[in-house]
Write a structure and sequence with these properties.
By secondary structure, this protein is α/β, with parallel strands linked by helices. It has one domain (31-43, 75-223): P-loop containing nucleotide triphosphate hydrolases (Rossmann fold, 3-Layer(aba) Sandwich), CATH 3.40.50.300. Helices cover 33% and strands 29% of the residues. It is built from six helices and ten strands; from the N terminus they run βββαββαβαααβαβββ. The chain has a six-stranded mixed β-sheet with strand order 6-7-8-3-9-10, sandwiched between helices. Strand 9 (212-217) and strand 10 form a beta hairpin. Helix 4 crosses helix 5 (146-159) and helix 5 runs parallel beside helix 6 (176-193). The radius of gyration is 17 Å and the shape is globular. The two termini are 21 Å apart. The mean pLDDT is 91.
Length: 224
């Protein structure tokens, strides 16, 4: 069953007085529960594509449908609601608040859901424990290793029960051993919860776990 569909997507940005086309007539189909890997050279538009698929930005033209919802021309409020209910993000540099503890960072990610404080706390604790951070709930980011910080970021993405997770180089700032641990964790999440994932990465180890691999080059996707 197709969960995410992009049709004829184009996106350009102004660079000074010059318009630069980043994505051109791009198409993509992702099945529910799949882990999809997108590779490509730096500057090819991978992050731009994730931002469009995740409802952070809008395409100049074309259509993006997620779970039968057309988000291409949704209002700001509709996109905020869509991101709150459907989407989890994992970033290369974790994007944790340095003045908040691990559990407070996860709770912050859950607060966009219309949940009680008790449920926010319960879900935050549950997912931090599931990513192996039972003893680190009250620690601050600077007290955690890079791998632990990324686990907090994954728990933050999972705790609000998203239907799809977007990862932008989630292992790009980690050593090889820690990268493998994070890859195994993402694979486990994908299999255990059936969470659809779209991951941008240069990490070749992810290829063996992906259901689909696409290369983004010259504004278009080609299946590898």
């Amino acid at each position: 069953m197709t969960f995410l569909k992009a049709e004829n997507i184009s996106k350009s940005y102004m660079s000074g007085e010059t318009e630069r086309e980043v994505l051109s007539d791009l198409g993509l189909n992702i099945e529910k529960g799949d882990m999809t890997l997108i590779i490509g050279p730096s500057g090819s538009g991978k992050t731009t594509l994730l931002n469009l698929l995740g409802g952070i930005d809008r395409p100049d033209s074309g259509k993006i449908v997620v779970d039968n919802r057309n988000i291409s021309h949704a209002s700001d409020d509709e996109l905020r609601k869509h991101r709150a209910e459907y989407v989890g993000f994992i970033f290369q540099f974790y994007n944790l608040m340095p003045t908040l503890s691990a559990i407070e960072n996860v709770e912050l990610g859950c607060e966009i859901r219309d949940w009680s404080k008790e449920k926010v706390k319960k879900e935050s604790e549950k997912y931090l424990k599931r990513v192996g951070l039972k003893k680190e709930l009250e620690k601050f980011p600077q007290q955690l290793s890079g791998g632990q910080q990324q686990r907090v970021a994954i728990a933050r993405a999972l705790a609000k029960h998203p239907k799809i997770i977007f990862g932008d180089e989630p292992t790009g700032n980690l050593d090889e051993e820690t990268s493998m641990q994070i890859i195994e964790l993402l694979r486990d999440v994908n299999h255990r919860f059936g969470t659809t994932m779209v991951i941008v990465s240069h990490d070749r180890e992810l290829r063996q776990y992906a259901d689909n691999i696409y290369e983004l080059r010259k504004g278009r996707l080609n299946e590898v």
